[in-house]
Structures
1.
Amino acid sequence: CYTIICYLKKIFLIDSSILWIGLLVVYLYFTITIINTRIYKFWINNLMFNKKIINVKMASFLFKKSLSKINIKYPVTPVMLELLKFWNLAESIYYSPNTSIIFKTWFHSGKFFIIKFFNSIKLKISVTNTSWNSLKKSYKRWFIIKFYYFLNFDLNMNVNKMLTEYKT
């Protein structure tokens, strides 16, 4: 990987961090295709939900602005916690004024692959005609829904921002 990145950096004069993100997206894509087999679906579901559960007060970025003041504790596995920590860091870089348009494009493709990953292990849940209180009773479903909404939250707004910046 390091040799490929050095080679591409010299040819295309691209920042190496962007290339690393690109390789991560490709790696995620291959992971998704592997997980599509039943054995891996069972394994990843086991890893995320059936291991020892820790109780964590989730950060306000999981909520839309109107809900940001509400403090609710969610049971969440260490794997999901690490995913959220990484994504929170990525979002802070994204909203930095010095962030390049290329990183922002990779950021959105990363969002797409994580959503695809959740879909591939049958974790996308429809919330039509279901009250929030009944969802809270099932912590596993509640957490997945909030995480899924977080990934989709203001995606169109960010894309419009990107296009505006690109035109200027």
Note: Confidence is low (pLDDT under 50) at residues 50-76, 118-140, 148-168.
2.
Amino acid sequence: MRMTSTKSRRRGGVSAEAMRDEEEWVPPSYPKSPEEKQQLRQVIESSHDSKLRMMFGNLSPKGLEKVVEAMFCKLLAKRETIIKYGDEGDNFYIVRKGSFDIFAFRKIRGAQAEEEDGGMVKVFEARQGFAFGEAALLYNAPRSATIIAREDSEVWCLERRAFRELVIRASEQKFKEYTEFLKHCDVLQELDVESRSPPSQRWWMRKTSRVRRSSFSKGGMTATCSSCCQGRLWPASPVRRAKSR
């Protein structure tokens, strides 16, 4: 299993990163024991952190396995900074062991406090199973917080490119698949076509995380349907006849 420290080189500046289909990209794979893989799957699937369900809930079993393979473990000493405000996002993190203090600039009358005012305050404590670092990767924005280890800790890391290819691209595909039948869900009728497209994608990720697929078989025929928040069903794939043996 790959272990690194936070002394590794960070990226320089922030740029609008385009994911180009023509670029050949191979998902990374870092060695892990079967127990570590199972632990990571369980954290992603059953964590109390809703961000994990939002981001990974739409992945297929194969897609989730690629994410598990692509993550590596990083060790941090007590009081070591893993994310610094203003830096470019390099990784997405899930706390494996230990805990982290998250500091952000306080708001003054609706505006962000200036750095020289010492306006950075603790806003959250991330413990085992909680995730952080996704915002900078989702929006190609600088880090909006500083995060420091409260104790000797370990995190699972997913590199920027892997996060965008394995998580964001998969969500975009699900977004396209679900857009049509989600239009039939009464609670979503007030949205126009523009609202169903980025930059509303993060909102849609939350909505589509409630979509579930089910298969029904009868008389040698199998149909796969999707259900949304009101329990209504729509075909998600053509009806297929079972293969004769």
Note: The helical segments are 34-46, 50-56, 61-70, 134-139, 160-182, 201-208.
3.
Amino acid sequence: MSKHWLDISEYVCLAGSVLGTIASATSGQVIYAAAPLTLALSASVANRKRLDKLQQQEQKAALTDIQETFLEDLDRVDSQTSKLQETLNLQTQEQEKKLEVITEQLKQKLVAQRENIEWQTQ
């Protein structure tokens, strides 16, 4: 992966600062140290802003991916819940029909037993 030009300029300015400090110490001229240090600081600030913006973009993309995954999962859960509800409704209807049949059979047996008892008591 190649380095961004701000990364390279930051390192070049730092190297220039070292050389400028040496030149300043030998010549007594502070400008030789101050100018490269100012450039290095400016490059560093610009690079930090760039890196912060890049990080924000990456975080936004990651959050978007997470949100999309979450919504897809939520849709799947909703779909499965609907299918389960349909299955439960069908099972409930089947159970109700079975109970109606059993209830009707019990009524018929009770009527038959009642008639049998009435016939025996006559």
Note: The longest helix spans residues 31-121.
4.
Amino acid sequence: MSSAKSNIAPTILVYSPEPTSLWCSSISFMVLAISVCYIDSLSTYIRQYHHTDLTG
């Protein structure tokens, strides 16, 4: 039983990190891009709102 576990564990350690890190990095990059676009549009909206509010 322990020999089977010791055989499976290195296989998981070898094959798991690469796709997982790739997936995590792509997800985090997507979240970062979305948040940057969201903050940019939000700041533009606030600027326009305040501008029209002050002048109008």
Note: The chain has one domain: 2-55.
